[in-house]
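[audit] Reproducing an earlier prediction to check determinism. Same input, same settings, fresh worker. If the tokens differ from the archived copy the diff job will pick it up downstream; this log only records the rerun itself.
[audit] input (220 residues):
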Amino acid sequence: MVRGKHKSCRGWQPNGTLRASSRCEACGEAWRSALSRSRDAEYTEYAAARLPSLRELAAVLCGDWQRADDLVQATLTTLYVHWGQVRAGSHPDAYARAVLVREFIHERRSAWVRRVSLSGRVADSPAAAVDHDAVLDLRAAVAALPARQRATLVLRFYCDLNVDQAAEILGCSPGTVKSQTARALDAVRRALGPAPAAGSGGQPPAAAEYQIYPGGRGHD
């Protein structure tokens, strides 16, 4: 080693050896760098594995894939910033779902949503014989709900969460979840109008309710 080149450096002693404190600082920096790489690798692996399910949930909430992708991007950014807290917890998926739903509610309150008209639709999943017009009417009725009511229906009937779990994500009481669910379902029924008479060939809206959220658990 050419010692003279480094003698002016703060960490070097006159005899050309590295001070102990500087060695500790170098080790600490290397340790922090290794931790950061490990953290990023864990986050990347988690995000890649959960991306499809997060996109599907976001699409159900938003009603179109472009906005869903924006919502997922915002969710993943939040997860990265708080990844230390996320990975230390016992339910990272629940944390991610809560972040996504809260981002959706926040977005719906913003002026951006009121300025933009969206026409995209979530693609329908293959299903048994279904009145597709009724399904589209039902999804339109759900899309017209206020953000919190729509989120409540998604959490209860798509994510298959119980009242307490939905209340924790929405940051409200179980009683509020029950009332929001009741109001949302009542609004959907009123938007759909009276059900077709038996034998008329049309499918009652109640039967189409299983198709609000394609692929949703508990609605097979």
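[audit] rerun output stored. Observation attached for the diff report: The domain at 39-115 is CATH 1.10.1740 (Rna Polymerase Sigma Factor; Chain: A).
[audit] end
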